[in-house]
Design goal:
Blueprint lengths: L1 H6 L1 H21 L12 E7 L5 H16 L5 E9 L2 E8 L5 H13 L11 E5 L4 E9 L4 H17 L4 E7 L4 E7 L1 H6 L4 H11 L2 E8 L4 E7 L5 H5 L2 E3 L2 E2 H4 E7 L5 E4 L2 E10 L5 H19 L3 E6 L3 H30 L2 H8 L1 H15 L6 H30 L4 H31 L3 H36 L6 H26 L1 H20 L13 E7 L6 H16 L4 E8 L9 E8 L2 H4 L3 H11 L7 E5 L22 H17 L12
Helix pairs in contact: 2-13, 2-16, 5-10, 11-12, 11-14, 12-14, 12-16, 13-14, 13-16, 14-15, 14-16, 15-16
Length: 686
């Protein structure tokens, strides 16, 4: 292999150039993200049962659905909550399960469930944890909510959905247009008309349908009957009975549907559109497209509306990735400088250094082909592998140089030098692969998370081996010469002194070998004791200038009541000079749970606020500790959306008696409070 490479320099150079071209193309086109793409397979089942209380919903809907889906293979956790008129079941699958197959299995199972006649068909949805790319908040300056909803539905949302790689646009605070008919019971009784009769008349007088076809020799025409009202006035003039129209017994007006969710920006009521990216796509590209679209949206909306882009994660992602890129480049430069200091030969250093950009750029092509994106872990993997890249090249160069020193001609020295160490390099590379490859196949969240890291390092190791035994010898055979430089001669005494010092230290260690071994084991035991006291976290804590407040009241609390309960929190936030902006979302979950609220707080830059993010979170935890009307949690926003709770520790209490469970949970909460635990967030799941 190496002989072919040395004798075919043009072929090898063309192969390396192709690798670099493909690598650069991959680098510029790979999706950019903060962390590897890890999508959790979660499926929800939402079933509406109008008029039923929570216990009826549980027995007639929830229990049947749970029983049907519980037999599906690969379920990790099954949660359900029954509300008045609504059943909500969450099915979490093992990470190895494909989300599309899981959703199909769930649909197949619940398709055979017999539900009450009044219950609507269950709605099965896949929950993407890919996360929000960015959000758009729209506020009406005039307070015309009907016009605002129409603008959002007909103009803004379609524009956002057309951005490339946008999976969905989730809306908080939106209300559908609804024609409302307020019936006067007194007038109905006066004219002896029941509500059912009125409903039937309105339905019969307000419809459109096909009435057949008109066919001749040249064309075929479809005939449609339009019996629907064209406007509010037409609807109000529907004849209920001879001489009596709808407007005589009811008020007819154009309005909005009942409020199912609420959203505000800096205290201004409006609509928030959360742009969700497709899993594995470039979030930075979506954010750039949204920013470019903003002027068009503002022009489209006019002066009566205020449109803001919020929750912009691009700066955080770019800054974090750029930091790792800097470390990568700085590490490469530092490695080259150190190699030069020890080799003391500029030509040999340059040849060795060629292994770094070749291996790094080539690795981009490989990991792009395998479907990975450019994130902190892939770049950290490359940074870690820099030493491996140049180490392989140094071993080859050093051995070739020794052969030249013994008097061999350049090509012969290259053949012999590579021949001697090729198998050793293969053994070293295989050993390194044996360390990193198993990491890529670890199970659970850690395995999913570090898969990209391990495969990046493994790809770099394989590529580095071929670069070291094919590309480096090809260049070395043609440019390396055995010639000592002045710098080499001047620094030789220093390196000779280092060698002598090393020998002096080594001699007593070998002489008293038992003591050396005992001291080594002593350091090992001491290190293990120190290691147990080192704190551990899955992702390093960072100051991202943001945090969130989650609030939960008792089930059945209305949106209006939640707004009242959240008022003290919002008042405290709005007067804080360290806060840039904040949003409030009520009933923000997929199930539109009106008793849950979420506050997103964006802080000013750390230079402007002085206090760190963690200190501000602690400050608000203490400030809101006195609020007893809701369960509150002030916390940092997790860097990885797992689709579940963000709490670092969860305690699950199960049983058949809800009253007893509630009593025990209160006792546990009080006990945890005595240990200084902050942010206890109880959650009742049936």
């Amino acid at each position: 292999m190496y002989k072919f490479a040395i004798n075919r320099p043009i072929t090898i150079l063309m192969a390396v150039m192709a690798l670099i071209i493909f690598g650069l193309k991959s680098y510029t086109s790979m999706p950019l993200a903060l962390f590897p793409n890890v999508d959790f397979p979660i499926v929800t089942i939402k079933t509406v049962y109008p008029g039923a209380d929570a216990k009826t919903v549980e027995s007639k809907i929830t229990d049947k659905i749970e029983e049907a889906v519980s037999g599906i293979n690969g379920i990790d956790k099954l949660d359900s909550t029954s509300y008045e008129g609504l059943s909500y079941v969450i099915v979490r699958f093992d990470l190895k399960i494909d989300i599309n197959e899981a959703a199909n299995d769930v649909r197949d199972k619940i398709g055979g469930v017999i539900l009450p006649e009044n219950a609507l068909a269950p709605l099965v949805q896949k929950i993407s944890t890919a996360g929000e790319a960015i959000s758009v908040f729209v506020v009406s300056k005039t307070g015309d909510m009907s016009a605002l909803m129409q603008l959002v539905d007909e103009k803004i949302k379609p524009k956002l959905q057309r951005i490339p790689n946008v999976g969905d646009v989730d809306i908080d605070g939106y209300q559908d247009r609804e024609i409302r008919i307020l019936v006067d019971p007194y007038l109905l009784n006066k004219y002896k008309i029941s509500a059912i009769e009125l409903q039937n008349v309105i339905g019969n007088e307000n419809f459109k349908a096909s009435s057949g076809k008109s066919i001749n020799d040249k064309q075929e025409l479809i005939i449609k009957f339009h019996g629907d009202a064209k406007d509010i006035e037409s609807l109000a003039n529907i004849e209920i009975k001879p001489g009596l129209r709808l407007k005589d017994v009811a008020k007819v007006f154009d309005g909005l549907s009942d409020v199912e969710s609420y959203s505000s920006y800096n205290g201004q009521v409006g609509v928030m559109l959360n742009i969700m990216k497709i899993s594995g796509t470039n979030v930075i590209g979506i954010i750039k497209e949204a920013k470019q679209l903003l002027p068009e949206l503002k022009t489209l909306a006019g002066d009566d509306y205020q449109i803001n882009l919020i929750k912009d994660q691009s700066d955080k992602i770019i800054h974090s990735v750029d930091q790792v890129k800097f470390d990568l480049v700085f590490g490469a430069i530092l490695a080259i400088v150190i190699v030069f200091i020890f080799l003391r030969n500029l030509t040999a250093t340059i040849v060795s250094a060629l292994a770094i950009p070749t291996s790094i750029i080539g690795t981009f092509a490989i990991i792009d082909y395998m479907g990975y994106d450019l994130n902190k872990l892939t770049l950290i993997g490359l940074t870690l592998a820099i030493g491996i890249f140049i180490d392989d090249a140094i071993v080859v160069i050093e051995n070739i140089s020794k052969k030249m020193e013994s008097g061999m001609e350049a090509f012969q020295a290259t053949y012999e030098g590579v021949h001697e160490i090729a198998f050793s390099l293969l053994a070293i590379s295989a050993m390194l692969l044996a360390v990193f490859i198993p990491v890529a196949f670890m199970s659970g969240l850690v395995g999913k998370f570090f898969n990209a890291f391990a495969m990046t390092v493994a790809s770099g190791i394989v590529l580095s081996y071929f670069v070291a035994i094919m590309f480096i010898p090809t260049i070395g055979a043609r440019v390396l010469r055995h010639k000592e430089t002045k710098f080499h001669a001047k620094t030789e005494p220093l390196f000779q002194a280092l060698d002598n010092g090393y020998v002096r230290i080594l001699k007593p260690l070998i002489r008293f070998k038992y003591i050396t071994v005992l001291v080594t084991f002593g350091f090992l035991i001491l290190s293990s004791q120190i290691f147990t006291n080192v704190g551990m976290d899955f992702v390093p804590a960072e100051d991202n200038s943001e945090f969130q407040i989650t609030a939960k009241a008792e089930v059945g609390t209305s949106i209006g009541e939640m707004k009242n309960r959240m008022k003290p929190i919002m008042d405290a936030i709005k007067d804080d000079d360290m806060i840039d902006y904040y949003t409030l979302s009520i009933a923000y979950t997929t199930a539109n749970e009106s008793h849950k609220a979420l506050v997103y707080v964006k802080l000013k830059s750390i230079e402007q606020r002085g206090l760190g993010q963690a200190e501000i979170i602690i400050k608000y935890r203490k400030a809101f500790k006195s609020i007893q009307s809701m369960a509150l949690a002030v916390e940092k926003i997790p860097p990885i959306n797992t689709g579940g709770s963000n709490a670092p520790v969860q305690i699950v209490i199960t049983g058949d008696n809800l009253e007893k469970l509630s009593e025990i949970s209160q006792q546990v909460s009080q006990m945890l409070g005595t240990f200084g635990v902050l942010g206890i967030f109880p959650s009742k799941v049936t």
